[in-house]
Amino acid sequence: MNTGRKIETKRLNLLPGVNMRDSKPFLKMLREDGDFQGYCGVKFSEKNLSKFATYFERTGQEECIYSIFPKDSMEKFIGYVGFHRELNGDYEIEFYIAKNYRRKGYCEEACKAVIKQIFGEGLSVDHNQITVDRLYATTLAENTPTVELLKKIGFHGDNPEDDPILVMQGFMDEDKEINICPVIKMIYEEKSMCT
Question: If we measure between CA atoms, which residue out of 171, 176, 173, 179 comes closest to residue 44?
Answer without folding.
Answer: 173
